Amino acid sequence: MQKTTAAPILEVRDVRKHYAQHTALDGVSLAVPEQSIFGLLGPNGAGKTSLIRIITQITGADSGEVLFRGEKLNPSHIGQIGYLPEERGLYKKMKVGEQLLYLAQLRDLSRADAVQRIKKWLDRLELKPWADKNVEDLSKGMQQKVQFIATVLHEPKLIILDEPFSGFDPINANLIKDEILALRDQGATIIFSTHRMESVEELCDSIALINKSRKVLDGPVTAIKNQFKTNTYELEGKGRLMLTHPDFEVLEQKERENGHVFVRVQLHAGATPNDLLRFVLTQIEVQAFRERIPSINEIFIRRVGETMPGSLVENVNA
Q: How far is CA 225 from the centre of its chain?
């Protein structure tokens, strides 16, 4: 993953949105660094879709503002944004090539430029033989490839992908992941909304977590994971280990086949990994030693499960 020191392409400032008696967004602020992959996370009903609809100007905020490259978001920015919604929408009776040409021209591409780009993308996503087929004749995964092409065909500066891997087999999911990374490396910024935390680990430079209409966590992925570390280490080795020491707390220990042992240990304040290693090396042959870093999935579950005070927002951007 690349560092996210660039200026923000998108800033959301104290945005609020209400629907009748429901509060969808309650003072949400975040900044999306340019040329990065930004994960927008949260459980169902948290407010993610409402925020995306405001960014894409489908709806407006009740208060607050959104800035695109320092300018207040306005209709002139629509052509610089590509949006792949979770609920796909293609014309089933229309041929793939004709549909992509139609959608490209809606984005003000000339016919010649659109045809050239369509050919390139159909080839890259292995859809060239299907260009003259009706969309309804394609598998769900193929249809999603077509919609992905439609999203990026006009080379938007900001690309919003809502569950982009839904319905893909592992091979095609990896193909789309590679294209997302390539788009980022070529200068695009991607906002990536998903429930697949393993994809967040693989792709995202920064994330924001929204829960119950509020932002409860945001920042670079590495900084967030470091914030949630618990000074816990895992050891694997050969031999018999009797780990009793005032500086360490054994959280889990398993005796395995052929005289192997696994142990998970939390260090008390003041103790170092070297202290732990020196102690166990007198007892076993150490074959693996690693710090236990929490996954984004574990952080997500923990943070969403907490009872959050109304004013508490953690920010690790600093």
A: 14
Spatial contact of 297 and 209, defined as CB atoms under 8 Å apart: no
| Cα dihedral 181/184/190/193 (nearest 10) | 20
Q: Which residue has the tokens 């707390």?
A: 249
**Does residue 132 surpass a pLDDT of 50?**
yes
Task: Find, among 224, 202, 194, 234, the residue nearest to 302 by Cα.
Answer: 224
What is residue 6's predicted lDDT score, i.e. its pLDDT? 63
pLDDT value of position 5: 54
* Helices 140-152 + 170-185 axis angle, to 10: 10
Judge residue 133's burial from the number of C-beta atoms within 10 Å of its C-beta, 0-12 exposed, 13-18 middle, 19 or more buried: middle
Mean pLDDT, range 133-158, rounded to an integer? 94
Locate all alpha helices (DSSP H) within 84-237, ordered by sequence.
96-106, 111-124, 140-152, 170-185, 197-203, 221-227
Dist. CA 87–CA 46, nearest whole Å: 17
The secondary element (H helix, E strand) that includes residue 54 is helix 48-55
- The 10 Å Cβ neighbour count of residue 292 is 14
Query: Which residues, listed in sequence order, are joined to residue 81 by a DSSP beta bridge?
Result: 158
CB contact set of 140 (below 8 Å; sequence gap of 6+):
167
DSSP assignment string, 10-31: EEEEEEEEEETTEEEEEEEEEE
d(CA 34, CA 32): 6
Task: Return the domain boundaries, the chain.
Answer: 8-226, 230-291
For 6, list phi and psi in degrees, rounded to 5: -70, 160
Question: CATH assignment of 8-226?
Answer: 3.40.50.300
